[in-house]
Design a protein that fits this description.
The complex is a heterodimer of chains A (476) and B (81).
Chain A: H1 7-25, H2 28-31, H3 35-39, H4 51-65, E1 76-78, E2 90-93, H5 104-108, E3 114-116, E4 122-124, H6 134-138, E5 144-147, H7 150-154, E6 160-162, E7 168-170, H8 180-184, E8 190-192, H9 196-205, E9 214-218, H10 231-240, E10 245-248, H11 249-267, E11 270-271, H12 276-285, H13 299-310, E12 315-320, H14 325-328, E13 340-343, H15 344-353, H16 371-374, H17 381-392, E14 402-406, H18 408-419, E15 427-431, H19 450-459, H20 466-470
Parallel strand pairs in A: 9-10, 9-12, 11-15, 12-13, 14-15
Antiparallel strand pairs in A: 1-8, 2-5, 3-4, 6-7
Chain B: E1 2-6, H1 9-13, H2 16-29, E2 37-41, E3 52-55, E4 58-61, H3 67-80
Parallel strand pairs in B: 1-2
Antiparallel strand pairs in B: 1-3, 3-4
Classes of the chains: A alpha/beta (476), B alpha+beta (81).
Chain lengths: 476, 81
């Protein structure tokens, strides 16, 4: 499991791998019921109270790996029986409270929510507590802890609450599909739906790319993933899965950066439209700013549109770090250009489901985009590219203030200011995930080193400017 | 006439951009905008011998330095037929 951060990811991967393996072999229907037992054999439980519960949960994971509930259009689902019903009481005083004399907690609390019993031990009055955490910060005995569910903590748009059975539930009016809860739930009780079967089906029906050609569009964040192999081997592996050709989404990013810089100059104030979670967030919480969202399609859809303009029968699969892309590709304005979306986790499962050890493969090449298209993968990269786009279009880049918002909370702060026209910027780069796409929920690893890997990959691009990358595209 | 240049990774690294730019200039120079449709595609299945170019359905390999002579021989000459 060296390629994953957590055992939850590994478990999800094993299910995806088994489903993919049987789909490739053509015996999935007969094998579905056996998959949980293959993953959890024997009688000794290692994760839950008993192997039967473990297998029941795995059966739910198999369903999600096969596409989940088809009647529910959302891409993130709660596996109810996997939810551990974690305590969610907020700040609580523990037995560590010694009933001291200083009462720093009482002083720190601006709401008067701390009281003391006859033993001088502190108590929190929940009707007054606003969960600010100041009391916890000042307690010399670290006696005050926050009992907040990891999923609720992870969800910065406050879409997760508990139902009457204390099970996590997602408010679809608020969820932006970012997948933060998927990565953060320590029990793996929230998961993204998978389209691996759609991809395998597309591949089979193409009859080795003779009926139509299947293209993979890969996100530039791939440079920080599959670090146990060379990038060229990953590209070769994707082709050995049956893809006809592999194209960088970063070329779509170059096209977007060029168009977006001109759009910014024309409109004066703009937000990016690349991150589907950010765009959805604006739709939910800041509808009055919807007109200010760039009218460009995302890099994924832009390059998909280009490929299909040259090859109208093409099928296109996007491979990236993002769960929100699984919702984006189903939007009516994007669906004509993208046929399915995979995450890097799922790509790993497809490699292993097909028995491909990519470390043994020869290296292929991947080079379609410029440095600027490639750095879209990290926070700040999109704004750098738009700034470069302004310069290359002969526009006064120094006249525009470009703001990079790293994570949905920073986006919220900027949008709140923009709403009342108090924002000190002309362009908002909005990325829902911290660090940008390299922090996406569908990544294999989420490391600190990833940003430098993206920049190093960007620097390897043969084309150094956006216009150079675009001039490979014939203009008629 | 349809002129398709492969702009996939292999051909890109072998100079697809220079070939596209070359053809574009030659089409303009010879005023063939109405007669030659220049398009790009990702991979023509001929990665070892890039840059791959298709004239209608016929496949060729065109290095950037032979762009002009190729255009004269295979495009202009054929259009004159």
């Amino acid at each position: 499991m060296k390629q994953f951060d957590t055992k939850v990811q590994y478990l999800k991967y094993m299910v995806l791998r088994e489903v993919a393996k049987h789909a490739y072999e053509g015996d999935l229907a007969e094998s579905i019921v056996d998959i949980p037992k293959v993953i959890v054999p024997g009688k000794t439980s290692t994760m839950r109270c008993c192997v039967y519960k473990e297998r029941a949960i795995l059966a739910e994971r198999v369903k999600l790996a096969m596409g989940g509930n088809k009647n529910d259009p959302s891409v993130i689902e709660v596996i109810e029986i996997a939810c551990d019903e974690c305590p969610a009481g907020g700040f609580e005083i523990t037995d560590n409270c010694r009933g001291c004399i200083a009462h720093r907690c009482e002083e720190a609390c601006k709401k008067g929510a701390i009281t003391f019993d006859h033993n001088q031990k502190a108590h929190i009055d929940k009707s007054n507590c606003v969960e600010c955490g100041r009391c916890a910060q000042v307690c010399p005995y670290t006696a005050i802890i926050s009992r907040k569910r990891p999923c609720q903590n992870a969800c910065k748009v406050k879409a997760i609450s508990m139902d009457e059975n204390l099970i996590a539930t997602i408010n679809r009016e608020k969820c932006i599909d970012c997948g933060s809860c998927v990565y953060q739930c320590p029990f793996g009780a929230i998961s993204d739906k998978s389209f691996i079967l759609n991809v395998i089906d597309i591949m089979k029906k193409s009859k080795d790319n003779t009926e139509y050609k299947v293209y993979a569009v890969v996100a530039p964040s791939i440079s920080s993933q599959f670090t146990y192999a060379k990038l060229g081997q990953v590209i070769m592996g994707i082709k050995q899965l049956g893809f006809y050709s592999v194209v960088e989404a970063a070329l779509g990013a170059d096209m977007v950066a060029d168009a977006e810089s001109r759009e910014l100059a024309e409109k004066g104030f703009l937000t990016s439209s690349c991150c589907p979670a950010f765009v959805k967030y604006i739709g939910h919480e800041f509808p009055m700013l919807s007109e200010n969202v760039s009218h460009n399609l995302s890099p994924m859809a832009t390059i998909g549109k280009y490929i299909k303009s040259a090859d109208p029968t093409a099928k296109i699969v996007f491979i990236g770090p993002c769960t929100a892309k699984k919702a984006e590709f189903q939007k009516p304005e994007v669906h004509p250009y993208i046929d399915a979306v995979l995450t890097f986790e799922e790509l790993q499962a497809l490699f292993d489901g097909k028995g491909l050890d990519i470390t043994t493969l020869p290296e292929d090449v991947l080079d379609n985009a410029s440095f600027y298209g490639r750095i879209f993968a990290r926070s700040g990269g999109l704004a750098d590219a738009v700034r470069q786009g302004l310069r290359e279009n002969g526009l006064p880049a120094e006249n525009y203030r470009l703001l990079s918002c790293d994570g949905i909370e920073e986006c919220r702060t900027a949008l709140l200011k923009a709403k009342v026209k108090k924002l000190d910027a002309d362009f908002i780069e909005g990325m829902a995930c911290r660090g940008g796409c390299i922090g996406g929920a569908g990544c294999l690893t989420h490391g600190e080193k990833d940003k430098t890997q993206v920049d190093a990959y960007g620097a390897e691009a043969m084309e150094k400017t956006i216009k150079d990358a675009l001039s490979v595209l014939p203009r008629n | 006439m349809k002129l398709t240049v492969c702009i996939g990774s292999s051909c890109h690294l072998k100079g697809a951009r220079q070939v596209v730019e070359g053809f574009q200039a030659l089409i303009a120079e010879n005023h063939l905008e109405d007669k030659v449709e220049l398009t790009g595609t990702f991979c023509l299945g001929n990665c070892q011998n890039g840059v791959s170019v298709k004239v209608d359905d016929e496949l060729f390999s065109v290095q950037p330095e032979i762009c002009k002579s190729f255009f004269e021989e295979h495009i202009i000459a054929k259009l004159g037929d």
